[in-house]
Write a structure and sequence with these properties.
four-stranded antiparallel beta sheet; 469 residues; eight-stranded mixed beta sheet; Arc Repressor Mutant, subunit A; Aspartate Aminotransferase, domain 1; DNA-binding; Aspartate Aminotransferase, domain 2; alpha/beta; 41% helix
């Protein structure tokens, strides 16, 4: 039940009048907290139509609620729940169902200073993107009403194919590009199409926990493959699970440690996939946001066997609010992925796609990217310097700074306490699979503001670590 669509059962054979049943249903919704103070109720006409009763019956129920001071009726606002309910009303809020899994508690819920994966808000081009979104929304609304292509808007797919050719070396036809709801939407699309239930899958250890969880939900058995100074240890994977059906990797910038997979290991990985008829899912983590050098070539650009599925998104380069990503699949998978997109996972709002298209082909994206690289380089260096001056070993890894903790310190405990102080560091040990060797540390996102606010955040974190170590 909600304020826009009240749902309760009308017993037409009952002893209570229908008006009284409506009154009691709304009263219970108010008392339970489902209808909050100030919530607007449906009009007489709308609720009468929904329930299949006369307007006069609904009006009678509303008038009784008004007499009891539960609602206020006016011509300008309609019928609304009063702001100050009667003191004898036994109101209580319905508790929100909050997931308590480590996935939510460690990676999806925490917000605050040092939060990872969030672009710098103080340099975000709000006016420009707002104008592009408004223009795109008007364009979509003015078009002939029809279902949109579930693969994504053709112009955006063509633009992305062109950008990937230039920036990532991926030579692909627009028909191979699918627009998705971010990285996770792309991963879900691919896993549905591959249908590898019961098969083993390589995952980096440490690696992105939500992606790892997605493989488990798709019925795959995750095989942890260690990450060393050169990225995923391909030979380890071949020795321990040569028959894996898929490998999920971040070759450009390993998540979360930031190293780039060297050419020798890339070639070995591609050879293994071709020999074993396995798939490689390339998570293009951070995409173009290489701070100290030009972005490494995409693994898909080196694939001559048609075994690499490339997934990217605009969450880090523009904003996660878009929930916009893309998948580039080998020609052999185009038809299967297109079917899944049509039936289970269509592309997101066309207005968002067209606004992003304008941002790309008008040159705003590349200018924004250059600016963000300068900002993040400056901020990551300052953050690393501040933590080093406080006695920590600090390592810059992409858009985060990893700090080592004193011996015996529990990074998850520190992170959970930090959430109460407006800080959102990510515990490194949480990126490892359970029951595997792990390393403690805190990953600090660098997108926050600089200056005094950054120093204060570092000081709060330092005091908390000292208290809990």
């Amino acid at each position: 039940m909600n304020k826009k669509n009240l749902r309760f059962t009308i017993d037409r054979a009952g002893r209570l009048s229908i008006a009284e049943q409506i009154r009691r249903g709304i009263t219970e919704a108010i008392a339970s907290g489902v209808l909050q103070p100030g919530a607007r109720l449906p009009s007489w006409i709308d609720l009468a139509t929904q329930l299949g009763v006369s307007r006069g019956t609904v009006k009678t129920a509303y008038e009784r609620l008004s007499d009891e001071q539960f609602v206020v009726m006016s011509r300008s606002r309609g019928t609304c729940v009063v702001d100050n309910l009667p003191v004898n009303t036994a109101t209580h809020s319905v508790p929100e169902a909050v997931p308590t899994s480590e996935l939510y508690q460690d990676f999806l819920f925490p917000t605050g200073d040092f939060q990872m994966g969030i672009p710098a808000g103080d340099v975000f081009p709000v006016p420009l993107l707002s104008r592009l979104f408004a223009s795109s929304a008007r364009k979509v609304m003015s078009l002939r009403q029809a279902y949109c292509d579930p693969r994504g808007e053709n112009e955006l797919r063509r633009e992305i194919a062109g950008q990937l050719t230039l920036s990532r070396g991926i030579k692909c036809h627009p028909s191979q590009v699918f627009i998705t709801t971010g990285f996770t939407g792309g991963l879900g699309l691919v896993l549905h199409a591959l249908s590898l239930h019961g098969k083993p899958a390589w995952v980096e250890n440490p690696g992105f926990p939500p992606a790892r969880k997605a493989l488990s939900l798709a019925g795959l058995t995750t095989i942890p493959v260690p990450v060393d100074a050169q990225g995923i240890d391909v030979e380890y994977g071949i020795r321990h699970a040569p028959d894996a059906a898929v490998a999920l990797v971040t070759p450009g910038q390993q998540a979360p440690l930031g190293m780039t997979l060297p050419l020798e290991r890339r070639n070995r990985l591609l050879e293994w996939a071709n020999t074993n008829a396995s798939w490689i899912i390339e998570d293009d983590y951070l995409g173009e946001l290489q701070l100290n050098r030009r972005a490494a070539p995409a693994l898909a650009s080196q694939d001559t066997f048609g075994r690499v599925i490339h997934i990217g998104s605009f969450s880090k380069t523009i904003t996660p609010g878009l929930r916009l990503g893309f998948v580039v699949v080998p020609p052999s998978l185009v038809e299967a992925v297109a079917d899944v997109a049509a039936c289970l996972s269509p592309a997101p709002d066309p207005a968002i796609q067209l606004a992003t298209l304008a941002f790309l082909n008008e040159g705003h994206f590349l200018r924004h990217l250059r600016k963000m690289k300068r900002v993040y380089t400056t901020r990551s260096n300052k953050l690393a310097l501040m933590m080093t001056e406080m006695g920590y070993k600090a390592h810059i890894h992409g858009l985060s700074v990893l700090i080592d903790l004193p011996d015996g310190a529990q990074d998850k405990t520190i992170a959970h306490y930090a959430y109460n102080y407006g800080l959102a560091p990510s515990p490194l040990s949480g990126w490892y699979l359970p029951d595997t060797p792990s390393r403690a540390g805190l990953l600090l996102g660098v997108s926050g503001q600089e200056g005094e606010s950054l120093l204060q955040a570092c000081q709060r974190l330092h005091r908390l670590i000292a208290k809990l170590s």
